[in-house]
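Hi there. Long-time user, first ticket. I'm pasting a complex I've been working with (about 1016 residues overall). I'd like to know whether the download I got is complete or cut off, because the file seemed smaller than I expected. Thanks.
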Amino acid sequence: MHASAFAQEKVVKIGALYPMSGRAGIYGMDSVAAAEMAIEEINAKGGAAGYKLQLINTDDKSKPDYAVTVAKRYISDDKVNFLFGVVSSAVGLALTEVSKQEKKIFIGTDHAATELTAQNLQPYYFRVANNTFQSMAAGALYLKELAQTKPWKTIAYIGPDYAYGHAQIEELKFNLDRFGVKYQMVGEFWPKLFEADYTSYITSIMQAKPDIVVSGFWGGDTVAFIKQAAPYGLFEKSLYFHPDAGGNYELLSAMGDSLPLGLVLSARHHNNWPDTAMNKDYVAKFHKKTGRYPTYSAEGAYVGVYAIAEAVKKVGNPNDSDALVKALEGMKFQEPEDPEGFVSYIDPASHQMVQVQAIGVTMPNTDYPPATRMLGNWKIYKAEDLLPPKEWIEKKK
Amino acid sequence: MGGKSLSNTTLVLLIGLAVFALVPVLKTTNYQMLLAAHVLVWGLFAVSFNMLFGVTGMLSFGQALYYGMGAYSVGLCVKYLGAAWFFPGMLLGIVLAALFAWLLGHLIIRVSGVFFTMLTLAFGQLGWQVMFKWYSFTGGDDGVQNIIPPGIFANKVVYYYLLLALVGASLWFMGRLNASPMGLILRCVRQNPERVRFLGRRVRRNQQRIYMISSLFTALAGGLMSGVDYSIHTDMFYWTTSGHVILMSILGGIGQFFGPFLGAAVIIVIEDVVGAFTEYWSLIIGLVMLGMVLGLPHGLMGGIDRLKARFAGSGARPARDGRS
Amino acid sequence: MDLSFFVVQLLSGLTMATFLFLIASGLTLIFGVGKVFNFAHGSFFMLGAYAGYQLSSVWGQSFWLSLVAGGIFAGVLGMLAEFLFLRRIYGRADEGGFQILLTYSFILIIDDLVKLVWGTEYKSLAKPAVLQGAFSFSGIVIPRYNVAVILIGLAVVVAAWWFLNRTRAGRIARASALDREMLAVLGVNVPMTMTLVFGIATALAGMTGVLAAPLRSVTPGAGIEVIIDSLIVVVLGGLGNFWGAWLAALLLGEVNSFAVVFVPKWATLFSYLVMALTLLFKPEGLFAPRKVRRV
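Hi, the file is complete. Here it is re-exported in full:
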């Protein structure tokens, strides 16, 4: 962990900030494990342009002000070449400010707030995981197709009462309108983040009788909501639809048999899709290293490290931030989450990784224990249809 | 507290200011100056909180309301009106805080003890909810970014000295207040409000005054912070921020003027050092805190005094700032 | 709003209220007896949940055994914490502040110990088979498990009443809230009473943790999340007033439940609003502790 061990070698220092405690701790743990895995792989092959990669991580406690302090320490004391990571979008927004001031490239691997690659974009920020807009655009297309086979009219939304929860429904509505889908909102419910008791929300939603319940939770909140809603029969009466974080593996594994079948979910990476050698290999290696299957956030960190290595290879050193920015813009590379015949790339205009989205349905599957349900019956959405259009970005400015 | 200890307070303040003034000269990395700036801001926050708690005996669990108010006045002024409004925003924050404290004080100072504490918590959390939910104006929990002080104050060293000067002046003012007849009355309010009433002093009016003064300096701390980090966040209004400053004060020693400042410095440095080398920071900080509570019954400052007394060989009990 | 929906929503509020009360009851008990504010009360709730998970999901024991064992586990740890640490700061100047600091350090320590033992993944606990599914009659649906929760809440109220009023230990506990010196003179081991009460309170929290686990997720960080809501219940109920806490929890549960229906956007605001308004008009809480005559 200390620079002295590497004193004789040329090193690319990556300053990571992941939560390692509290509710989001699982995302941080898996991200760090996957990033270290990528670094071992790259270093075993001789590193990037003669440089070895090295990761330092500090628990950001999901607190923006603390994260800012740590990032400044990374830049001034630890002399990192890249800022890296972050699960919370609020932390991401605070850090992109530091990145801009200090002209240090910040590779975002998880946080999903669209504005980071839209109205708040600054030259030194890149995101290698998809944003909520992409998830919601795919979600809107799914709902459009669904209307043809199984007509539906009404939607109710329930999501945590903070920026992430609000962004999702706003972006879903925008995309439904954009794709010409007719719908009626019959209720919006805003429990606080980490709410423990959803009973009154559930009975209230059931009273509204929506055809589709769109959910915007993540992590333990999804677990609690589904557990509490199941005995009320919510999942028989309405279609549960959760296209950004509903299909996260930590949720599938925590719920086991109590996860109802037929829920329509997605995540930013799936352990069982795509069925490519690269994805299988990535999942198997992670399992071998940690003894558990990765949740979605790990893949972002894994890809992020490779993006750094590629950029350093192209430029020849990790110090010239502006040249590295040029190298990253438009960069193409194969990721575990790329299906056959597609290669992800970084959109030079928005610095956003352009990826394919897959939405699936819960079904029995015991290949990834302790989960007993995984997603299947995939519907795949083309990357190009999912980016925010210009008028949306303009409107937000 | 007699004349002698007043000069002690001034002396400690001057030495402290000199030490902090040397930071930009002696620092080896910019980060050290950032850390010093954080200590100054939180130190000011903690000392003004302690004017309420340690001196007057009013445990507010809602000072984050004023801290956030100070920060958001600056942040929102800069966001909507431009960088030139940085300092007017800071002034606005202070005025707003004093006004709010005056209004709220009328409502909540009627109750005492734990009920006062809970009312301050309730209003603090209501304030947080409003800022959190008012997305169109405050940006909600995304916070406000890109708050850069205008002109030469965009230079970090210049801003640091401004910060130091303002914190120093505020501490000096509060130190004077603490040693003044009003400070004496406040301490009596803490110990025996009935007697203060018998002596013809109005308890509530004095409590109201100190609540305003404390809140006003808290808002100043918040405003200054926005120029240190360049970004602010609704967490600043959240109860954990109020809790943090309570911990700092108790750890440093609420019986002494500089105790909370010392507590702030220690907590900030420990959090940073421990956070940097282990993800199990929570366990280590918890154990350190546990050890300090059991080993230092009067806070860090009390411990230091005891050591001083031992080295002076006097064997006398350390003076404890007007406490019986 | 038709009648059946009204009843459903009322029952939702009741479920919420029961959890609020079960967590807060221990807090108010400790405060009532020993004037101790245990900031780490939620951490004992979390410890109970993890212990229940370990027994039921990992070791395959029955839910009911896990419920009891989770309570005992948290209770024993609570007694140890009181005996080894809290006891040493009683009577110190500014004791209240040091209580916060000390119990806050418990939160930090317990959080990381839990992480060391169980990791950060979300853990789950299955409902017992008899409590799966829901009762349903004329449009009113209520999950069996929620009914069980409400009944257990009532049982705790009755048991606590019996303990405080009908047992010697309970009478001593009530008396020690009033005059510790006198009790000591009478030959009662007051410190041991306090340890016992602390143990009962944390055991209640631990048991509630197990009870809540099948409805929630067992995650790190849960300790700090429940504490503010419990604090509101305790203060609204009149500090240390067991029955007051029950009624305050009912009030908060129902207010929240109907706020979700009528003002879904602002529902999260109501707990604080209720507390602020109540304390402004009734500064001592809804049910102030009875002033007891000194003989």
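A couple of notes from our side: The first strand of chain C starts at residue 134 and ends at 137. The two ends of chain C are 54 Å apart (CA to CA).
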